Amino acid sequence: MTYCCGMLLRDGLVMIADTRTNAGLDNVSVFRKLRVFGKPGERVMGLASSGNLSVSQSVVSTLNEGIKNPETGEMENLLNAPTMFQAAQLIGRAIRHVHISEGRAPEAADPGFNVSFLFGGEIAGDRLRLFMIYPEGNSIECTVDTPYLQIGEHKYGKPVLDRAITYSIDLYTALKIGLISVDSTMRSNLGVGMPLDVLVVRRGAFDADLDYRIGPSEPYFRDLRESWSRALRAAQAAIPVPTYKTLSGRKLAPAILTDIDPEDALAEAVPPSPQQAAGLSPVKSG
Amino acid sequence: MTYCCGMLLRDGLVMIADTRTNAGLDNVSVFRKLRVFGKPGERVMGLASSGNLSVSQSVVSTLNEGIKNPETGEMENLLNAPTMFQAAQLIGRAIRHVHISEGRAPEAADPGFNVSFLFGGEIAGDRLRLFMIYPEGNSIECTVDTPYLQIGEHKYGKPVLDRAITYSIDLYTALKIGLISVDSTMRSNLGVGMPLDVLVVRRGAFDADLDYRIGPSEPYFRDLRESWSRALRAAQAAIPVPTYKTLSGRKLAPAILTDIDPEDALAEAVPPSPQQAAGLSPVKSG
């Protein structure tokens, strides 16, 4: 499993990826999933992968060696792609090349030909862009409405992103929220683990602002995890306990089956419960 | 989709279920998924379902009509099962009955024969128990180590449970945390929605302490959602922004491909990044 998330913001781009790779629970290792490509002053790109490691590594190796353009004969790679869109298309072509060359082999042995990429960055003359590229090689692009994309185990870490990420937040605040999102994911899924690779790109810089690996004992991230746990406990404790009036001393109608009730099934609002129907309304006190 | 969660605690049992059922995004309706069965003073049981609605309703109808015991000829149902374990086994048998009678029909048209149940409660003479029953009819039982079980869309709401639910917390605090868990799930998955059904059973009471439907405009739950959002924003804002030293003014080595590095791949701790290798170490300031 994997968790990678990319955020496209007013000020730039943030990408985060974990490094845990496993072939079963009994074969766990560390592999880099976030790779940075660039020509300082001209372009900077981050490519994060999830899915079958042999497929994602083959795609990256194919990109490194370049793909021959059938019309011009030129070898195309990420460092000579004229725009981010064409670079994203090139990644899609690399995925399809690997699919053709490795054919059905991964599908036979494995959960299948399973690979996704987040690809973000900026090339001089083009705008800063972030894409998610699917196993079929097609892609979607991140926009201001939902300024983040995720691949891999995306569910555990999504609520905090949904609540906190907006297009206008500061880059390092976004990095912080992204790290909280990764922390939530790591707590619930053993397939996502430390160390983490992070990339921060400031719009118009054509270079990485931060290209860093956060290790297991890194003090900032350790403090973030502890602070967040503490804050969640405090937040939860600060919410009052529900004061629904209890049914203590009241009795259920004998041998009832609180069951499929046609009115219940169609109700859009609060239908009467069987207790209410039996004059034993559980009401909110106070 | 569905989200149901059950918690087995020192003081009793809490069960929560949403009510949204959908056949595609264009056919959404409200169905009760948490049903309460009981004979006051003798037994109380909650049964929450997820999966194919036709299957779960057929299982419940089969349970209501009773299943003939081939040895004794007696009609067995949830109200005459001698123990919670035998009641859980009866539900398993009902699932298998439906599987046999409806055969391959659901599999042909649908994602398949897909149903799970949470089943909790207490029968006089037995202890309070909580089971998760699988589509195959087998089950697992909740224990003190992880005092909750979930069915349906369990991922979004799991982090808060992992952090806050312990065996010894108060029943209504557990209900509160469960409602936070449902709130997180509803925000991220449209397949989970209001109203919510909740059941609270106090150990040894053999009756529901609370059997209640929370509607969309219910004041306590609305306040809980707002307080939790506010508290999360505050918690997030209180964590300092990372102070990793940025690379501004530094340059990536020309045209590097930060790529698969054998040392990197094997590193357990923080390996040098390409910047570090090039003497451009991104270090933490302060």
Could you walk me through the main structural features you see in this protein, from its secondary elements to its overall organization?
Chain A is built from eight helices and 14 strands. By secondary structure, chain A is α+β, with helices and mostly antiparallel strands. Chain A has one domain (3-228): Aminohydrolase, N-terminal nucleophile (Ntn) domain (Glutamine Phosphoribosylpyrophosphate, subunit 1, domain 1). In chain A, helix 1 (53-65) packs across helix 2, helix 4 runs antiparallel to helix 5 and helix 5 (171-188) crosses helix 6 (219-238). The longest helix of chain A is centred in the C-terminal third of the chain and has 20 residues, at 219-238. Chains A and B meet through strand 5, helix 1, helix 4, helix 5 and strand 13 of A and strand 5, helix 1, helix 4, helix 5 and strand 13 of B.
For the structure shown, list the relevant keywords.
homodimer; 286 residues; alpha+beta; Glutamine Phosphoribosylpyrophosphate, subunit 1, domain 1; five-stranded antiparallel sheet; 8 helices; 14 strands; disordered C terminus
Briefly say what this structure is.
Chain A is an alpha+beta fold and 286 residues long. Chain A is built from eight helices and 14 strands.
The description of the largest β-sheet of chain A is:
5 strands, antiparallel
The chain-level structural class of chain A is: alpha+beta
Count of separate structural domains of chain A: 1
Discrete helix count of chain A: 8
Strand content of chain A: 25-35%
Low-confidence stretches of chain A: 248-286
Q: How helix-rich are the residues of chain A, as a percent range? A: 25-40%
Shape of chain A: globular
- Quaternary structure classification: homodimer
